[in-house]
Model the fold of this input.
Amino acid sequence: MPLGTIDRTPPPFFKQGPSALSKLVFFGALALFLMVADARLKLTQPLRSAAATALYPLQWLVMQPIHLAQRAGAYVGTVSSVQQTEILARQKLAMQALRANQVDHLTLENNRLRKLLELREQLPVTSRAAEVLYDAADPYTRKIIVDQGLLQGVEAGSPVVDEAGVVGQVTRVYPLLSEVSLVIDRDQAIPVLNTRTGARSVAFGDPVTQGGSLELRFMPANADVVAGDVLTTSGVDGVYPAGLPVARIAKVERRADSSFARIHAEPVALTAGTRHVMILKPTSAIIPPPPAEENVAPSARHKGRP
Done:
């Protein structure tokens, strides 16, 4: 093919339009125009609103992972904070409960000590304050151990009282401790006086009935005893001073087939859970001895005999 017949014009693919500089100037001017028009006439505001509305679902979908991560972090932080706050609150509550219990215990102890001091001033006998250490280990007896013994001058048989009345009697003394048998112990018996009628009787310990009470035995069925009568120490045994509260009649049973009545009384003293008591000197240690028998002349003894 002769060279002269070849078309030397470039194909459409390689045809060039306006120059790059022309395009830069044109689009720069267009951008400047649009900016001035948007600032002055707000021409692009509807376009922006439409674009924002159309792109909002996509924007919301893209932001969800970020929001979930933030919420998860906030939840974990909140749970940890709440748990820590709960732990601190429980600790404070436990401390306040302990202090409240201590305050109640100290208040109760203070009231009992005040009553014991007043009782000590009223009693005409020598007394000594003691603290209950523990209950005796024997399950078949009702005894307590106090922190006063031989070295403090405690004697066997000494009455023991609290702010309400008679608690029991010292039955065994050690150098530093003493064993006190409560009035409800089965081996204890105490002479009592009915303050309403003046009748004397003997109250025996009954640790089984009603969880611990006293029983007036060998009382006639027609005895003038009613529920509510107050029993005090009669003072005729040489151990307990007269007038100390002992018990209150709780129940009287009169049966036709028996000539004796069954009389139960509740002790007025705190036989379970008492903390401080007063140990008294036995009455026999402070009362004067009985007068000695006078020597009678033999002639006077045989006077009047044949």
In short: Residues 21-122 form one domain. The first helix runs from residue 20 to 41.
